[in-house]
Amino acid sequence: MAVNAGSSSLKFQLLEMPSEKLITSGIVERIGMSKSVFMIKVDGEKNEEILDIPNHGDAVNLLLNKLIEHNIISSFDEIAGVGHRVVHGGDQISKSVVLDDAKIKYLEEIIDLAPLHLGPNLTGIKAFKEVLPNVNHVGVFDTAFHQTMPEESYLYAVPYDWYTKYKVRKYGFHGTSHKYITQRYAEMMNKDVKDVNIIIAHIGNGASICAVKNGRSIDTSMGFTPLEGIPMGTRSGNIDPAVVEYMANVKKKPVKEILNILNKQSGYLGVSDISSDSRDLVSAAEKGNHQAALAIAIQSKRIADYIASYHNYVGGAEAIIFTAGIGENAKPTRADIGGRLETIGVKIDEERNDTRGVEQLISTDDSKIAVYVIPTNEEVMIARDTLALL
Ligand code: AMP
User: Fold this and answer.
1) Ligand 1 centre from 276 Cα, in Å?
2) Helix H segments across 155-277?
3) Whether the model pTM is above 0.85
4) Bridge-partner residues for 140, per DSSP?
5) What's the confidence (pLDDT) of residue 234?
6) What is the CA(326)–ligand 1 centre distance, in A?
């Protein structure tokens, strides 16, 4: 079972391994609030119930009992392992690990690095461990894939003891997705992962670019937190940090609130004043809305900047991969980014680019760098790592 626990939600997928066949998936929402929602897919159909689910432990119990009730499993013993998506592994965890007491203690020690996500992740892990004490629980970390970055990529040019004493450095996120894409690309090209030099543009509601050299992450756009890098659905991406103090002063608000605005009311939403959803912006831009077009253009420009720079850093990328909600589906955005990369030899083929949600080459045959759409699959990656550690 692949699990992604948030503060009030819990997403799950049950996969048959090693065939990677999806058995069922679902989500529990509004945990701890009134009118919690439990959704599970039974024979592909959504089955939704509204009820009160006071905490994560209750959510886990309910979900496991529903698997039996819907005849998806006949006993809990059929679940051989649980893989948990964990947002942060600090600088000690560079691969997926079995979540024993020592690992959980370590995660509790680094909770301040990602308090909004790591706390709920730990709550989910503990709830599952309590209900399924006899199976292995594996942590699959968003930061792990990026632990191969060299110092020159992950260190900020700030006083060195900010790093040594306070762990301030770039960690990077979306690592499970970037790793999946790297492996999948190697498989598609029939080559060893060690020979893969690519740039991955994971563009969804959250978005990050990753430079992959010899199959390893050597740089990525997200940083100490997911706020760094390119503008996203609601995040600003890079800004001059001096703006934070300035806006705190003029708005007479604490720094915390300004950061909240940079995380939750910026990016697509902030610039467009319309929505954080790319579909809304694409359609508003098509109708001539300037701010919607601008929100997309600012993001596309910054993505192209990162890709051009990473092309240099990996020593010449063989391919650029688009993935996640926008990367997989939004052809005008891909075309726009491609158009901004003509000077490094990228040529998008209009017909090939007319695609969504499937693996597809979208560059012309004479493009100097191949461009692909490859749908990401973090849950399969979680299941693979869990199986490997059983
Ligand atoms: P994710 O976070 O990967 O689920 O991606 C969410 C983003 O993908 C949202 O901005 C969606 O609007 C966007 N998205 C999903 N489907 C489409 C589509 N058909 N066209 C444009 N954007 C899409």
Assistant:
1) 10
2) 160-166, 175-189, 242-251, 255-264, 267-272
3) yes
4) 85
5) 95
6) 4
